[in-house]
Amino acid sequence: MAETQLTRETYDRLHAELEDLRTRGRVDIARAIEAARALGDLSENGDYHAAKDTQGKMEARIRQLEAMLRDAEIVDAGAAGADGAVRTGAVVSLRYAGDDDVEQYLIGSIEERRPGVSVVSPNSPLGQALIGKRAGDRVAYDAPSGSLEVEIVAVGS
Prior knowledge:
- This protein is of the alpha/beta class.
- It has 2 domains: about 5-75, Helix Hairpins, CATH 1.10.287; about 80-155, Transcription elongation factor, GreA/GreB, C-terminal domain (Chitinase A, domain 3, Roll), CATH 3.10.50.
- It has 3 helices and 7 strands, in the order E-H-H-E-E-E-E-H-E-E.
- It has helices at about 10-35, 45-70, 125-130; strands at about 5, 70-75, 90-95, 100-105, 120, 140-145, 145-155.
- It is elongated.
- InterPro entries: GreA/GreB_C_sf, TF_GreA/GreB_CS, Tscrpt_elong_fac_GreA, Tscrpt_elong_fac_GreA/B, Tscrpt_elong_fac_GreA/B_C, Tscrpt_elong_fac_GreA/B_fam, Tscrpt_elong_fac_GreA/B_N, Tscrpt_elong_fac_GreA/B_N_sf.
């Protein structure tokens, strides 16, 4: 798995989520499975199958968090965009060629999401095209629908 860049706040939040899932989450699921088993025939026991499905999803999330946190690089959210260049953690205002609307994107992991701002991975074609650029720069990148051009209107954190 590629290294994920996370702010300290997000890293700490994800670490707390992981610990909660490993402890309280696993205990709660074990109780739900035991309660469902007590209801009888497991082949037609909807509660049992639902609890097992929830357990599988929780264990997948635990594995995802473990891998992400193991390979995480902590970035300084306050420094993102402070020098005017697009970096991981920066919020970038873009205008697509031929469009007057300005859209905001956070460059980073989906785990960094913020209300009202779409997230773009720094490893995506758009993210790679933006990294290191500044307000006023125009960049082109290959999207699934073809080549697109954007103008960087502003860079902030």
